[in-house]
Write a structure and sequence with these properties.
single chain; 425 residues; mainly alpha; Proton glutamate symport protein; two-stranded antiparallel ribbon; 18 helices; globular
């Protein structure tokens, strides 16, 4: 049975087990709490994925950049990648803005929904996560790009600094003389091949890990709470899902068909394991090893392209996140009864685009980004409490969109670079 079918079955079983055990937190199996067991399995799988990120990303970028060769080739690939990321992120935010203006989820019966929603979230705990954050955090992206200690950056998971160092290392590795250049290339190519094999080994346990991750989320939410949330925040939830769906199932296929010239259905099949894992983990970085595996092995994109496009995309290309930030900020503004002008809404689009990049490495990144936007609008940070209760579920959805956009970028840029054999079967 193919991996994506195994993961789909695991998702179904996880939802059933999560709902069945959400009513009895003391449920036990052989003396172990079921909820604790879910968390243990999910955390173990997530840690295994995170374990291979740093060596895989570093080795793949170094090998890929060194293989590009000429500085002209490197600059051309980088320019196409950045143009694609900026364009797709801007499109996604614009879609979010149009959907939220059309549906107006913050207005029910002609009245703002703020007073109709009984906030159950701990507002102080939420605001504490974003305390002291502001627009200056966008500038921090450039500081994190050049870490003072590359080993510490690797230990802390600062992907932007690692990517920047790896790009420099690969670029100048191709410009040193023999025998050093050849031995360096063989060394890093060997590490990359080993990491791919470890990735394949870890992914054999993906269905089990997905089961643990999803069962814990479902058990934590519970059927009763989920339907209660949908009753109060249903229109906001549907607005986000609709906007994400338009971007993923309309915009991305059009790019694949008319710019890359490939069959979008083949790409969905190729990326199925990575998309399902992204949905389960809600982490672009943790899914990166499998994303690279699917893009190279299933879609047929070269390591030269995927090793540059995908690690960079997992850090700076956040279509789903930017879209969500825009919809969430507009929903909160509507819920507070604030009528925003076109200029203010366009500013939200730009802020969502910038913050999706600038705060990607900060814990609770979406909350931080939304707080920055709310500060610009003039609304209190406590407005985050309106959406916090459904954030975890929507996080899983927008992460899948982030991953799919990255993979479409790798395919599109690979085709524009003249690569053959991409999605031929």
């Amino acid at each position: 049975m193919k991996l994506h079918w195994q993961i789909i079955i695991a998702l179904g079983v996880a939802i059933a087990f999560g709902l069945a055990t959400s009513f009895e937190w003391d449920s036990a199996l052989l003396g172990f709490g079921l909820y604790s067991t879910y968390k243990f399995i999910g955390t173990l799988f997530l840690n295994a994925l995170k374990m291979i990120i740093v060596p895989l990303v570093v080795s793949s970028i170094i090998v890929g950049v060194a293989g590009i060769g000429s500085s002209g080739g490197f600059g051309r690939l980088g320019g196409k990648t950045l143009l694609y990321y900026l364009a797709t992120t801007f499109i996604s935010v614009t879609i979010g803005l149009m959907v939220v203006n059309a549906i107006e989820p913050g207005i029910v019966g002609g009245e703002p929904v703020k007073d109709q929603i009984n906030l159950t979230a701990d507002v102080s705990a939420i605001t504490a996560k974003v305390e002291g954050r502001g627009a200056s955090d966008v500038v921090e992206v450039f500081i994190r790009m050049v870490p003072p200690n590359i080993v510490a950056a690797a230990a802390d998971g600062q992907m932007l600094g690692l990517i920047f160092f790896s790009l420099l290392f690969g670029y100048f590795m191709a410009r040193i003389g023999e025998p050093y250049a050849g031995s360096q290339y063989s060394f890093w190519q060997g590490i990359y091949e080993v990491m791919l094999r470890i990735t394949l080994f870890v992914m054999k346990f993906a269905p089990i890990g997905v089961f643990g991750l999803v069962a814990a989320v479902v058990a934590d939410t519970g059927a009763e709470n989920f339907f209660k949330l949908m009753e109060t925040l249903g229109w906001f939830f549907l607005s986000v899902i609709l906007a994400l769906s338009i971007h993923m199932f309309v915009v991305m296929p059009l790019i694949l068909r008319f710019i890359a010239g490939v069959n979008p259905l083949r790409h969905y099949r190729a990326m199925a394991p990575a998309l399902l894992t992204a949905f389960s983990t809600a982490s672009s970085s943790a899914t990166l090893p499998l994303t690279m595996e699917c893009v190279e092995k299933n879609a047929g994109v070269s390591n030269r392209t995927s090793s540059f496009v995908l690690p960079l995309g997992s850090t700076v290309n956040m279509d789903g996140t930017a879209l969500y930030e825009c919809v969430a900020a507009m929903f909160i503004a509507q819920a507070y009864g604030l009528d925003l002008s076109f200029t203010q809404q366009f500013a939200i689009v730009l802020l969502a685009l910038l913050t999706s990049i600038g705060v990607a490495g900060i814990p609770s990144a979406s909350l931080v980004a939304i707080t920055i936007i709310l500060s610009y609008i003039g609304l209190p940070a406590e407005g985050i409490a309106l959406i916090f209760v459904v954030d975890r579920i929507l996080d899983m959805c927008r992460t899948s969109v982030n991953i799919f956009s990255d993979s479409c970028g790798a395919v599109t840029i690979g085709k524009l670079e003249g690569e053959e054999g991409i999605l031929d079967k």
